[in-house]
Amino acid sequence: MSKVLVIGGGAAGMMAAVAAAYNGNEVHLFEKNEKLGKKIYITGKGRCNVTNASDIENHFSNIIRNSKFLYSAYNCLNSEDICTMIESTGIELKTERGNRVFPKSDKSSDVIWALTKLMRNVGVTLHLECNVSEINTDIEQIILKDSKGNSFEGDKCIIATGGLSYPITGSTGDGYEFAKKMGHTIEKTYPSLVPFNINEEYCKRMQGLSLKNIALKIVDENEKIYFDEQGEMLFTHFGISGPLVLSASGYLSDIIGKHKFCAYVDLKPALDKETLDKRILKDFKENMNKNFNNSIDKLLPKKMIPVIIELSGISPYKKVNEITKEERERLVDIIKNLPLHILGVRGYNEAIITKGGVSVKEINPKTMESKLISNMYFAGEVLDLDALTGGYNLQIAWSTGYLAGSSIY
């Protein structure tokens, strides 16, 4: 039996503590906040997207970096397993669109409660408001020191301190500093699953407008396509956000400064240009004696109409029966290709996850143990692993945490 010290009371840390204690170890979990799972609490807009109820192949197709590293972790604990564990505590789960799993209550606090109950059932000792500031591995035992000068000795240590996203929850990059001092390589970090800053001021004029069933295509200065998907997006005072945008940032956040990117929004992806033109002609016919600005309210959201009219170059007061074919073509083109020049991504305060982290080349994928420092393990977002939205990032935390804990005897 080992004395195991787990640093971090988030998803990976709590799961690591449970797994290590299952094996009969004496487990101590250290959390700098006054409560466990602060980041879990705000995930999924406060509902907590626990995982994705799909097969491993689908999970891996949604993991952007180092998915192959996770084979052992997912075989140790998959999405079905985490659901079974949480439901064993009495918390009911439900599956929604896109196979996203949430607590039936829509309360993320239920998930934190379930994990806390699992830890208590196996005798994990919790140290809340304990900010670990130093790890000493120079002697046979591992010694942690907190910011108040207290010391804690153990045989094994699991670092599950998260990344840099949502620093208000306590994710301030502590794990990167610990790892760096041990000689680990830290792959450059970036905010990811994060909104975009956009150059065009008309985003601000449309702030609050949510669009469904649109297509978002992102290209660089050479017209190379980096992202092209359909879904939902939202205009904000600084640019754009929403599910499509967050997913796009997962691919672009680490290269956004290396190219000039432009996003094109197709407001009517179900219609080709010819069909859309016929639709506009139909609307014009029904509003033959109206001004242009009063003729497309069935076609576009009210908040968007002034912007589209301005970009089309057609006078808002022009009678629709006077609009030329060329002017209609410009209107169609704007509706099918609304341009948004990307200035960059928002910061860590708005990022769901951190891209980058401790290099997985220096971690044993079968145990999560460091290849450089024996008895030192890593789990969760502190590692260079990231995925798209949909419950995949939390599953990475559950799986790597469980594997790290269960590898310790």
Structural summary, described in words:
The protein contains 13 helices and 21 strands. By secondary structure, it is of the alpha+beta class. The chain has a six-stranded antiparallel β-barrel. Helix 1 links the parallel strand 1 and strand 2 (26-31). The longest helix has 15 residues, at 392-406. The chain is elongated.
Strand content: 25-35%
Shape: elongated
Distance between the termini: 6 Å
Q: Which stretches are low in confidence, meaning pLDDT under 50 for 5 or more residues running?
A: none
Helix-strand makeup class: alpha+beta
Radius of gyration (Å)? 25 Å
The number of distinct β-strands equals 21
Strand order of the largest sheet: 13-16-15-14-17-18
Proportion of residues in helical segments: 25-40%
Total of helices = 13
Per-chain topology:
Layout: E1 3-7, H1 11-22, E2 26-31, H2 38-42, E3 51-52, H3 56-61, E4 63-65, H4 71-76, H5 79-87, E5 93-96, E6 100-103, H6 108-121, E7 125-128, E8 132-136, E9 142-146, E10 151-154, E11 156-159, H7 174-181, E12 186-192, E13 196-198, H8 202-205, E14 210-219, E15 225-235, E16 239-241, H9 243-252, E17 262-266, H10 273-286, H11 305-312, H12 325-336, E18 338-345, E19 353-358, E20 376-378, E21 386-387, H13 392-406
Parallel strand pairs: 1-2, 1-11, 2-7, 11-20
Antiparallel strand pairs: 3-6, 4-21, 5-6, 8-9, 9-10, 12-19, 13-16, 13-18, 14-15, 14-17, 15-16, 17-18
Helix pairs in contact: 1-6, 1-13, 10-12, 11-12
